[in-house]
Amino acid sequence: MNILAFAASNSSQSINKKFVTSVSKYYKEPEDVIEILDLNDYEMPLFSIDRELSEGIPQAAKDFATKIDCADFLLISLAEHNGSYCAAYKNIIDWVSRIPGRKLFNSKPVFLLATSPGAMGAATVLNTAVNRITWDGANVLDSFSLPSFKDNFEEGKGVINMNMRAELEAKVRKTKRSLKELFEQA
């Protein structure tokens, strides 16, 4: 299975990148390939219809779409900026959504994650994404929010709060079962 994981953040110190990288290890089987993307590698001009008409869709948007298309499963951890998506992520999905003949996520199964330093764990943006991403062609298998990142996560260990870790691991098992069923039907 080809797994594409990324933080919907352009921070060089992204806690969401640390989180999604840690969660991706739960899915690593000998035959699996996990690729961790950095949104900074897909920086492009701010989307506008005028720019699209004059310059076309940036190659970086097409490259990002190709990464999605080559994946069997997506792990996305959402950063929350003022209750919404990080501008860098929103810009990328705006551009990719303009590629003719495609839904943004092309029916890919997705496990949505989010974390933040605060007690809400980026729950606002996670709820927005869960409700919105299906319109963009994603098959949301589940979602998980990790609050108070600095208190509940340790690099090298992952989620250290035992209750939250148990909840995350239950959701990982559920998504693995769902993925198995999807691939058996295909």
Structure description:
By secondary structure, this protein is α/β, with parallel strands linked by helices. The chain has one domain: Flavodoxin domain (Rossmann fold, 3-Layer(aba) Sandwich), CATH 3.40.50.360. Helices cover 41% and strands 20% of the residues. It contains 7 helices and 7 strands, in the order βαβααβαβαβαββα. The strands form 2 sheets. Strands 2-1-3-4-5 form a 5-stranded parallel sheet, sandwiched between helices. A two-stranded antiparallel ribbon has the order 6-7. A hairpin with a 3-residue loop joins strand 6 and strand 7. Helix 3 packs across helix 4. The longest helix has 24 residues. The model has no long low-confidence stretch (mean pLDDT 96).
Q: What is the CA-atom radius of gyration, in angstroms?
A: 16 Å
Helix content: 40-55%
CATH class category:
Alpha Beta
Q: Terminal Cα separation, in Å?
A: 13 Å
Task: Give the number of DSSP strands.
Answer: 7
The CATH homologous superfamily: Flavodoxin domain
Poorly predicted parts: none
Provide the domain count.
1
Q: What string, H for helix and E for strand, traces the elements in order?
A: EHEHHEHEHEHEEH
Number of helices: 7
Identify the overall geometry. globular
Biggest sheet: strands side by side, in what order?
Answer: 2-1-3-4-5
The major pleated sheet works out as: 5 strands, parallel
- Structural class based on helices, strands and sheet pairing: alpha/beta
Tell me what the CATH architecture is. Answer: 3-Layer(aba) Sandwich
Q: Strand-residue fraction?
A: 15-25%
Give the averaged pLDDT, no decimals: 96
What is the name of the CATH topology? Rossmann fold
Organism: Rhinopithecimicrobium faecis
GO molecular function: FMN binding; oxidoreductase activity
GO cellular component, one term: cytosol
Domain NADPH-dependent FMN reductase-like: 1-144
